Amino acid sequence: MLKTGVVADRRYLKHFAGRAHPERPQRAEVMIEMAESLRRPDLKFMTPRDATPEEIESCHTPDYIATVARTASLDRFDFDPDTHSSRDTYETALLSAGGVLTAVEAVMDGAVANGFAIVRPPGHHALPNRAMGFCFFNNVAIAAKWLIESRGLKRVMIVDWDVHHGNGLQDIFYESPEVLYVSTHQFPHYPGTGSLHEIGYGAGVGFTVNLPMPAEFGDAEYLRVFDRLIVPIGRHFNPEFILVSSGFDAHFRDELAQMRVTEAGFGAMARRVKRLAAECCGGRMVAALEGGYDLEAIAESGRAVIDEFGRDADEPIRPDDGGDRVMPMIERAAQNVGRFWNLG
Ligand SMILES: [Zn+2]
Hints:
With 344 residues, the chain is of the alpha/beta class. Helix content is 38%, strand content 14%. The strands form two sheets. An eight-stranded parallel beta sheet has the order 2-1-5-10-9-6-7-8, with helices on both faces. Strands 3-4 form a two-stranded antiparallel ribbon. It is globular, with a radius of gyration of 18 Å. Zinc ion is lined by residues 162-164, 247, 249, 290-291.
């Protein structure tokens, strides 16, 4: 039986965003230690490769890449009030994008069934020409482009359950019908984008699905959103590969947001994505770490997701109960995107 690939490497500790910065090296450390402690025979640990300049250029401008590269000679550079580099940031960011590519390649080549990439710095806020929100290169976007440009895929789905809207992912694929971008996020909240009305543009209309939720929503609301919208839309899109921007900052213990998701909730979302991948694309999926700033919460949530990735996909999914207060958002979203997607 094929294994779940886990990309883990202590070189991810090298990027340093500043003392007391929440996106700290210990995040990678606790995730790697968690994965190593699982001692499961169905996990295959993988060493990441660097992303190549051409791969980074699939999503970022040469001028911006050169700006990030130049920070390798600076003790510190402030890209914005939240996003700071150290001498090792450029190198670590190349390895972060490359880590997701390592997992995606292994799945495409049939070396593993699916994958989880423990990477940092995160990527989903990074714009083509700008670092923001602790992100430098858009790791998941680069992986989606690689699947399309190097492997000829026509339909890639990105599920972004980080508590923040992935404005960079949305921006890069806003006019593309090849990438279905679906995001759950606290709203209003950083970075301010991700309203129900942002649905894509031109050929990409309908292929951006934003599912904004007010603070304090938790497992029941998230699972209802998966069951009523994300899974039916995904089934209709019929992806050839699913990427998950797997931030864990919607966890109730996270201090950068106010959602109430538990580690079991992340596991239940992972089960739904895994089932969708089994239905549509032979189980091909890779999750990449994005945000998540409570060390215990990210380790426990990461464990729950990796556990689900390794399970038998035939296990039943228990329908959610509760979550009625998310129904108004679901109904408004259905009005906006129901003309593009059969919601079942
Ligand atoms: Zn986040």
